[in-house]
Fold each of these.
Amino acid sequence: MSSTPTDPTPPGRRSTFAVLMAFLGSMGLAITLLVALAVASVVGTVLQQNQSYEAYLLDYGPFWHELFRTLGIYHVYSAGWYLLILVFLVISTSVCVYRSTPAMIRDMSRFRLGVKDKSLRSFQHNVQRDAHPETPAALMSRAEAVFRARGYRVRQADHGDHRVLSAMRGSAGRLGYFFTHVAIVVICIGGLVDGRLPLMLAELTGRLEIETRQVPVSEIPEQSRVSASNPSFRGSVEIPEGQRVDVAFVTMRDGYVVQELPFQIEVKAFRVERHATGQERSFETDLLIHDEWLDEPLAHTISVNHPLTYRGHTIYQASFRDGGSRLNLDMHPLGRGADRPMPFHARIFGTYSQTGEDGARLRVEFTDFNDTNLTLIEEDGVRERMDMGPSFEYVVRDSSGAGWFHRNFQQPIERDGRRYLLSGVRQNPAEPFSFLYIPLDPQGDGVDRFMRFLARLTDPAVVADVVDEATRTAAGQFEGVDEGIRAQVAETMRGLLETFTVGGYEEVIAQVQEQAPEGQWDRMADIFLRILNSGLDAIYLRVLAEEGIEVVSDEDERFLEDALRAINALPFYGSPFFLRLNDFEHIQASGLMITRAPGQAVVYAGSVMLILGIFLLLYVSHRRCWLWVQPRPEGSGLVLAGTSNRNTTDFNREFDEISRAVLGESRPMPADQDARA
């Protein structure tokens, strides 16, 4: 009694494993995965990756930002769905190779000597002879010589009533399929090795937490640190000149983790080379690598496209920014005491507390410094790129955290023959700057006259004295004017001067519209502005008198126009003081990108394999030929046939030459003897 193993799968149905293998190895799945990767790569190329969420929010708005964030569009190449596609592509391609490679190898080595003459007659390339004068042995001998001379491998078989010769060339071309598919697997594995798979797994298991606070490295907890043994990462760090670090920051979604390095990187110096226009041409950094493995620090200079590779870590020159420059400033209150500036020493990235004129506590945050600022200036129809010189940026915040963003320039700008100091202001970093033009003294580069004028205008004692003087002058010119009317005019002038100081001309016009009937707005506005301007002129004359100027020139009058225009804009300036840059110590920071990519060599190997496979597929054709010969009383009957998997035009010519050589014909065969289908 014996038993035989039985297949538990019912007849006519495939097993679950077979169905799964068929699905994973299907062409449709592979094409779908490749298209998905192509689309994801396009998105990752078009959309700048690994930026801060604040920048994305400003660029795309709340709705699209939230959608893109949820889909992982901001970090395509490390998104879970992208890595999952890579995994499935590796599995799918591996199944294809597993299923197809054995049959392909067998086909490369099989000469198919059992082929029938009937099947050969159906080939596109074939020649048939029912009666050839030569014997089968002679035909076989000449055919073998012809094929071997053309680089074919040849095998023969004697089947008794007929003989078969099989010739094959270019079978290595079939390896193109193998190399291209294996190359895809190798490249994907290299991508997975260099991906953030270890970090993602550590986060999923709770061993890693993303840090979102902007705190010093020393305050970052261990849960947000990655050890130096991490096999792959791509991080960045900014190192000021003269300082060293042993960490890099890896951006992850809305935060980062700290990647520890097995050595320290010190920036000795950073240099920028510029074109004649001031535009950056190149920049480079002198590095020192401190490592206990080294007897002395390793010195190396890196630049764009010329990185340093050390212990499997590649250090690239990526960017540069300020590294904490020291600024020597003058702080002018934009009100009383404007002519008495206070020295103010600050450092970029420093935060300082100040008290406004109304006693409110303010926070001043210095954010950036540039020693060169190229600006496109258009004057008289001519556009010219101009270097505006050094500038610094800072934010003035109130107790609620709301801030005004400022950008002040050290060098003046000339406009219509007059010179100004520029101070830009905006409430949102995404908005362009609006500029306050502070006129410089007609003689010299200072702002003393403007600040004295502003100080006198905001000094209640000076305003009261000017108003009294104007009232006495009016009383002398217009005798008999009621004392009550003179007092009313004086009070009106005092109120207009105070209103202008607080809100500018707009506030004066608003006051007119509030106090006068609508039909009298224009007349009352004209009266009020006359009274206001007479008071402003009187204060300005006092300022000129302090300078010893008795005769007002056209230049002095133009200065008053510029000063009033600047004071009119002060209510929208957002800061109770103006900072002027006197001197600075420029300290730069080099932005480095540090990568550890062991899968890079794997990707390179896969790329070479892919190139080889494509070459074999495109340029090496697998060609087969058969000669089927049967003895006949008058000689031999034969069928010569051939096939090629590509380059059929070349094979047409080659098969014609082979057929004439095998049949012993010195000229092309007549069309009626060529029985090609």
Amino acid sequence: MPALLLLSACTSTKEATREEVPPSASSQVPAGTSAPAQEGPSRMTYPATRSEAVVDTLHGQQVADPYRWLEDEKAPEVQAWMKVQDGFTRDALAKMPGRDALAKRFTELFYVDSVTAPFRRGQRYFFMRTHKDKEKAIVYWKDGESGQEKVLLDPNALSKDGQVSLGRWVPSWDGKRVAFPLRPNAADEAVLHVVDVATGEWSKVDVIEGAKYATPHWTPDGKGFYYEWLPTDPSIPVDARPGYTTLKFHVLGQDPKNDVVVHERTGDPTTFLQGDLSRDGKYLFVSILRGWSENDVYWKHPGEKDWRLLVKGKGAKYNVIPWKDRFYVVTDEGAPRQRVFGVDPKKPERANWKELVSEDPKAALESVSLVGGHLALEYLKDATTELRITTLEGKPVRTVQLPGVGAASNLLGLEDQDDAYFAYSSFTTPRQVYRTSVKSGKVDLWAKVEVPMDPDAYTAEQVFYPSKDGTKVPMFLVYKKGLKKDGNAPTLLYGYGGFFVSMQPTFRASILPWLDAGGIYAVANLRGGGEYGTAWHDAGKGANKQNVFDDLTGAAEFLAKERYTQAKKLAIYGGSNGGLLVGAAMTQRPELYGAVVCGVPLLDMVRYHLFGSGRTWVPEYGSADDAAQFKTLYAYSPYHHVRQDVKYPALLMMSSDHDDRVDPMHARKFVAAVQNAKGNSAPTLLRIEANAGHGGADQVAKAIESSADMYAFLFQVLDVARPVGGVAAEGQ
């Protein structure tokens, strides 16, 4: 399920009318405080954007929407507006000092050789490699651990222009075939294909459209797989499509049009439907997810007609790991930081569940895998990883020795194989892959990424600060050693705060030029994430969403109070749900920030559920169809709080032209509103990535260009000295 990064709505009683009103009707809420003064040129002359006198009356509240016409992306006028805005932005960014030097440094940092941990299927191993001279990672395979590496899927060869992307590929259990989706323009929409590993031939029959949510679940014999299927019927409204998802079974070599439906659609666009199949093929599962907080789980033996309810999620979520006639259930039911139960499918009633791993009050259980006849448990303690091994009965065996304090994946391996792998990185350590023996606990370095940098030049610390209501919030700070806390360090503050997504201390090569220029990179672990379990998530969703924005405000105030930086040197950055975060921060407390970088965001929270995958996000945000939820959404909706008399921070909006998850209308409407705010003189730019989806383009060259643009913008508007330490400024 795509985490918005993520996002449904039952129609409720809502009165909506359109009225002709003066354009000034959009300024009904008192203005915020002005942002810090921006040095540099006076107000830009932007491409003209017309406004319309459009207002909806929702639950008795007049809601102005002067740029609704920008919602229709297919309209020629909107297409022309996008082209002019993007051209204007790229011209401005290209002229910013230091941009070429940044692009050169990012080229050194991004084009690297690396390898992922391998998957073993049968006697074959599968993995991915990036290459210094390639734009996209390539899928390889080999016979046995010491076999010759062979190319299986090369996304670089899928299209001349790089517009076709490879999605999540899944090998069959015998290793003979791999099912994989192709995604045009890196969008979510996909077509599923099957390749024969030995010959490299793609099946001409096994081609399945409607694979937006599809994950293949192979049968043990490799002759077919279950998958989630979404109809591509254009008559189905986009916002209703998630409710049409079904679980199907495909037999290799047969026409997919004849695939049997094994679970019907829910008909509820606020839900996700996900399937799974045990490795031995004895147990088939379906999970009906309502947002990121609860789900129902059904199961049966393949071939049986009726589904059996395992558990009805009432405010709790359940993940089932089947192995040898036992279900291992990971849940936050009665345990906000999660615990693990053992369930006998012959006695699946809730009263018969046996607790194997109890909740740890000091650490949140992120994930569980079954490897080498043991349970591998990934925990977060104050947002850093701890890996623990227990027996299948939950008896502690050991804690895996990690290289340091950082972020690690859970163990990757098979239920009955001793060898397992995990990846590790930290803010100052590029990604490394380790192999471990589950039985002995021995850990060896298997592969690492070589990045042109000196890791000893940087340091990271974790601080805790109070939010508005007194809640203690953790934050990571990364900077070059020798930093002086005099309030002058340019600082980039990143946050997300939603959908149970945890922000961990992983390596980010893109921040190195920023650090080398004396900058600080800060990551705040805001409420709405999963760093401290369900309670932390619940405290930042729905009616509690304002807590997330207050947490970011608290981070900004802490950084200034402790003399790390000051408002005119502080930038905030977030994408998707994090784009909503920085949009709200910008409109609520503009005086705290000197710059904002906002990526693929939600910003019109009154109408978000009518576009893209929006209805699936109603459990996270709420819906304007509901009177009480509308009040909450409208109170913080960034688009509706852009004021004419406020000076906002400099804004770089980064959008994609093929984002089919979060509709780019949010970015268009918000930029139009900010550009037309008469009292705002700071730069407001809209950059539109071509042939890219919600996650952006997947070519290294595109990543270099977008990173160079972003940091050149930040260096310019925050008046930061030219990048140093690996980047020579032009003219020096």
